[in-house]
Design goal:
The structure is a homodimer. By secondary structure, chain A is of the alpha/beta class. Chain A has helices at 15-23, 30-37, 41-53, 118-135, 175-180, 192-204, 262-266, 268-277, 285-293, 297-321, 336-350, 353-356, 370-394; strands at residues 57-61, 72-76, 82-88, 92-99, 104-111, 143-150, 154-155, 160-161, 186-191, 210-216, 220-226, 229-230, 325-329, 360-363. In chain A, 40% of the residues lie in helices and 19% in strands.
Amino acid sequence: MNAASGAQRPAGGSPGEVLALIRDRPATTRADLARLTGLARSTVSQRVDALIEHGLVSETADRESTGGRPPHRLRLRTEDNVVLGVDVGATHCRIALTDIEGTIVEVREDQLLVSKGPEAVLSHVDRRMHEMLTATNKPLTAVKAIGIGVPGPVEFDTGRAVRPPIMRGWDDYPIPEFFTKRYDLDVLVDNDVNVMALGEHRIARPDVRYLLFVKVGTGIGCGIITERQLHRGAQGCAGDIGHIRVPAAHDQPCHCGNRGCLEGIASGEAMARRLSELGHEASSGRDVVELVAAGNMHALQLVRESGRLIGEVIAGAVNLFNPQTIVFGGVLARVSEHLLAGVREVVHQRSLALAARSLEIVPARTAQDAAVLGAGILAIEHYLESHNVNLRLTAT
Amino acid sequence: MNAASGAQRPAGGSPGEVLALIRDRPATTRADLARLTGLARSTVSQRVDALIEHGLVSETADRESTGGRPPHRLRLRTEDNVVLGVDVGATHCRIALTDIEGTIVEVREDQLLVSKGPEAVLSHVDRRMHEMLTATNKPLTAVKAIGIGVPGPVEFDTGRAVRPPIMRGWDDYPIPEFFTKRYDLDVLVDNDVNVMALGEHRIARPDVRYLLFVKVGTGIGCGIITERQLHRGAQGCAGDIGHIRVPAAHDQPCHCGNRGCLEGIASGEAMARRLSELGHEASSGRDVVELVAAGNMHALQLVRESGRLIGEVIAGAVNLFNPQTIVFGGVLARVSEHLLAGVREVVHQRSLALAARSLEIVPARTAQDAAVLGAGILAIEHYLESHNVNLRLTAT
């Protein structure tokens, strides 16, 4: 027999695991927790008391009990613990108020140019947050964390964009501090593709261990899920496939200063440029999608050829990473039938047979909500984890 | 503040964690274990008793104690628990008997062609295992698991080579069963680059979270460490960079049936072929290394140019994966000065600045022992983990 068994690990009993047992409801009493974790009763009590003190869990006497001392039921306080998931796009801003189980409570979307700069965009987010709290009758203190996806490379540990090509005025701007100066909460910032990958994974494909989420819009980027977690890499910039040099392609100059980058020849912007050279009216990926929908043959051929070029880079990623599923999102995924035909053609020709054997190449299921869901989940998972760490520091 | 704190997680108290606390020596008594894990005394006793029953831990009265009931000391039984680490190369077979703390006890190396087929090679391993057990005066039952690295793609879950180009007769052969039919132990099989990556990581660079180990020998392959674990991917064949198409290179046919593969133009074999076309005597990577050492200018230029071609593919891997360290091993790493100069040149030109900023590109430290150490560690980690699972099945 090769390899370790896939059997589940025991619950163990760290504070976070105690919380997870309550959230997922195998444990509704202190006695359940002691039984499921093997922890001493005194340790369970210490951890549950801390969760109650932090307002995450409530404990109420069970009135349905008949005779004897009624057991006390433990429950996650979702109504008092919410997060904000923010999707800052090149030309829009979508915001969702989400409870800590990941359910969207309120959502707002506005047209807003990211190039207006961080103060304008983040002030807008701040105003919308207050409106949504008022609309749902929640106090500001209910917001435990904010997750934000932005359209550019982010150094995850500091929450700053690093030389983002399409975010004028945002380079090195301390995004988290805009909020942490005003409120007592944590702010997580990541690039848009990472939060989309997280949203798609947690909501639509939680059982996939190795997933690539490829966004094809104005630019091209990739979010990586490995062992069900986001892989950000050493500097937090993993997945930047837009500037990988495409094998067997023309050495078209790219705005990054190099030649032959995938983004420079296969993105929505590159397709629109090529179509307008051919005399069609197109200035964005959205226009390319509309031309395809209208049956324009040039647009259709171009989307398929872009799929092949993306396939050249994805074939390398398949050999390196051996994913189980590759999901395509971004505006060009609306014509995924044509785009993915090109991708599949090259991937199956160029990738190792073993890796390509049962590889899924599919459009995203979460559609327009991928980013707000993912940003919200980023905030929730961080809040529960940081809480876990805090508990450990106070518990002996 | 962005991101979760890097603080250590609490010990928790699963059977494996109890074992780790004993092995790493923060816990030498049952009282230590109860204190460090927060587990009930009865749970600690149950788990320690199971570890003693399985022969992994011994408990002896401490004679140095003065007065009162002497405490009982817990200790890992390294002398009765060993594994075999096997490095099957194209033309050699190196075998190490290693204790479960990862220390090599005995080692043997022989010239042996992998193309002799599985029966011949595995019978040789079996004979050498018995010799080494006799030499160290250990019974067969002391061998708890065998780890084997082979020079070809492996489906890790079944331990079978999958269409391996240089392992004649091994395709789909059930390697683990050769031993499991004879003995009561588990056998883990992985490709040579994965076990080298594991050996280099655990022994020389345990603190690196994201590492690529690139082997440049007869072929070219890559082992991936992410969050300190081997990343094998969905089918266990991640890291197969030898058949990624090289951007901006001639479309040389490759033995895999495609054109322009990295291995077809930059491997030791490809360099030797090119040198012999130029009139030099070279039939293997080893010959290329010797020509470079002798100051042959063609060989030197070729190694540097191969470094550049490898750099083209590695630049893409850096953008996708954002590693902290890239380690080079294999026979061509003996001329790493020239090889890595070419790699660094292209990686720094083509990779995202943020990802390349503090990237280390270095030769391996574990040298010829990387594979046997890694194969041994694969066996040890599996044995302790499977043991952990067994314990959980017996403990209530």
